[in-house]
Amino acid sequence: MEQAAIPALRAVLQQPRRVILMNKIGITTNVPIEVLLAGGYQPVDLNNIFISDPDPERLIKIAEKDGFPINCCGWIKGIYGVCMEYDIDTVMCVTNGDCSNTVMLMEVLKHRGLKTIPFAYPEQPDINEMQKTLTKLAAELGTTLEAAENIRKQLETCRKLADRLDTLTWKDNKVSGFENHLWLVSASDFNRDYEEYEKQLSAVIENAEKRKSYPENSIRLAYIGVPSVYGKELYRFTENDGARVIYNEVQRQFAMTQPVASLAEQYSIYTYPYSITYRIEDIKRELEKRNIDGIIHYVQAFCYRGIGGIIFKDVFKLPMLTLEGNDNFYLDQHVRTRIEAFIDMLKRNPGR
Ligand code: SF4
Q1: Are residue 319 and residue 188 in the same domain, yes or no?
Q2: Which end of the chain is more exposed for a tag (fewer CB within 10 A), N or C?
Q3: Which of 99, 250, 279, 299 to mutate to test ligand 1, by most ligand atoms within 8 A of the CB atom?
Q4: How far is the CA of 216 from the centre of ligand 1 (A)?
Q5: How far is ligand 1, taken at its centre, from the CA of residue 300, in Å?
């Protein structure tokens, strides 16, 4: 994610550190932010601060200096670095539905004197279970589910705008893969100011609607897996080579763009925390709807989710390129050559 592309975040980063995070709760992944907002807290996605930092390697080094192993996922180390560097004092850690690394990260943060709030998604995407989970969380944060439902209604406009931007990407061909990534991934905390997010995204959409469409013959790519450490470069590189990412799987999930009747439903149809089966159903639907030629599957080094690629290769009947990133925040020549070869192959044999 390019810092200059996120004016709201840049403004936040420029404020004095201790002031920035007053009444804030750092979050390690997507959580029911409506409940946090109803409780009077400002969710702050620590991943977005990490990847937008002018020097993310420095944050990883802070974690490694404090003892995090080299073979630990870069996002976990980056989140730890953000907690230390930005004086975060409270973190909500997802202990079920994200990854086991977060469980130990939570222990270390607690040991360092931070307040941690564990949050566990239910084992299954069951609406009744989710209702109980959200009610319990609301009580812990001194609010009610009814108040959180009111916040859900307030956030509906933002989520509809994110959906409109997504349509402008795959259907109208007017929005780049990076813009799509940026606005959808930012919905995890709406850049810490949902009213500002709504204003800025409305302006982006108004402008995009007037643009010329990308050429019809561009190769249409899907990006599946966790957001990459390559940020804008990956999207720009594919576009310069005659291809476009028109589907960002996890980012779209974070934005929760599907209309729902309740928070329990919203967080039950969210596929990321549950069995890979739900992700596959969602991805298959979108691949077909968006007329995709090929898939880029990004895996983070040392992440258990990468193993799911074994299943993806069997169930998706489209060419797939698997890229593994670690703590290199740019596309090196080896990765560039692999992407070029993949796009070249798709140009000769489009999946459509
Ligand atoms: S990339 Fe994988 S290992 Fe790293 S935080 Fe995310 S789920 Fe965990």
Answers
A1: yes
A2: C
A3: 99
A4: 35
A5: 7
| Residuewise pLDDT in 10s, the chain (352 residues) | 333 334 444 444 444 343 344 489 999 999 999 999 999 999 999 999 999 999 999 999 999 999 999 999 999 999 999 999 998 999 999 999 998 899 999 999 999 999 999 999 999 999 999 999 999 999 999 999 999 999 999 999 999 999 999 999 999 999 999 999 999 999 999 999 999 999 999 999 999 999 999 998 899 999 999 999 999 999 999 999 999 999 999 999 999 999 999 999 999 999 999 999 999 999 999 999 999 999 999 999 999 999 999 999 999 999 999 999 999 999 999 999 999 999 999 999 865 5
Q: Say which CATH number the domain at 270 has.
A: 3.40.50.11900
Question: pTM of whole model > 0.85?
Answer: yes
Domains of the chain: total:
2
Q: Are 160 and 142 in contact (CB under 8 A)?
A: no
Q: Which amino acid, residue 165?
A: L
Which structural domain, as residue segments, surrounds residue 130? 3-143
Quote the tokens at residue 269.
Answer: 């149809």
Distance 50 CA to ligand 1 centre (A): 14
Q: Of 143, 160, 187, which residue constitutes the final position of a domain? A: 143
Q: Domain check: are 33 and 105 in the same one?
A: yes
Phi first, then psi: what are they for 140, rounded to 5°?
-60, -35
Which residue from 60, 101, 121 has its CB within 8 A of the most atoms of ligand 1, so it is best to mutate? 101
Phi, psi angle pair for 323, to nearest 5°: -115, 135
Same domain, 77 and 52: yes
> Which of 115, 143, 171 corresponds to the end of one domain?
143
Measured at the CA of 306, the angle between CA 301 and CA 310, to 5 degrees, comes to 140
Q: Which atom of ligand 1 sits closest to the CA of residue 100?
A: 8
Q: Are strands 243-248 and 294-300 parallel, antiparallel or unpaired?
A: unpaired
CA distance 183 to 189: 11
